Amino acid sequence: MDNSTKIKDEIKGIISATMANSQTLDDFCMQHIADYNRNRFEALAIRLFVGNETIITIYALDKIRQQDSTVVSKGSLPVKKFKLTDLSLSSVLTYFSSFNCTLSTGNYDIDDIEVMNK
């Protein structure tokens, strides 16, 4: 498959989720990442890849490096990436009480649509 076909087959979007049982992303990290330390890191993003394998990627702010202006470019956030490959998608989903996902072909701006059959 050439690159132009691949782009046409891909749809992109946004997702919002609510953590279950008053948990935080940091709570998830403490349970699944051996060297995760809340005093040093603050989880700020999770990426879920499901395909021929499942990869959960956590991006966590490195608070120590953030305080050292010689390490970080101005306006950048120093993050550590944690990759988890030993968790199933179903086990990760138990940490969330709800998901809302919208995917679009990208041919039109989703913010410009008007639903006519309300």
Could you explain how this protein is built, in words?
By secondary structure, the chain is an alpha+beta fold. The protein has one domain. Helices cover 21% and strands 36% of the residues. It contains 4 helices and 5 strands, in the order H-E-H-E-E-H-E-H-E. Strands 2-3-4 form a 3-stranded antiparallel sheet. Strands 1-5 form a two-stranded antiparallel sheet. The chain is globular, with a radius of gyration of 18 Å.
Strand ordering within the main sheet = 2-3-4
Mean pLDDT: 87
Outline the low-pLDDT stretches: none
Question: Helices and strands: which structural class?
Answer: alpha+beta
Sheet having the most strands: 3 strands, antiparallel
Oligomer: single chain
Helix-strand pattern, N to C?
HEHEEHEHE
How many domains would you count in the coordinates? 1
The percent range for helix content is: 10-25%
DSSP helical segment count: 4
β-sheet strand percentage = 35-45%
The end-to-end span amounts to 39 Å
What is the number of E strands?
A: 5
The radius of gyration is 18 Å
The 3D shape can be described as: globular
Topology summary:
Blueprint: H1 3-9, E1 12-19, H2 25-32, E2 41-50, E3 54-62, H3 63-67, E4 79-84, H4 89-93, E5 96-104
Keywords, separated by commas or semicolons:
5 strands, 118 residues, 21% helix, 36% strand, two-stranded antiparallel sheet, alpha+beta, 3-stranded antiparallel beta sheet
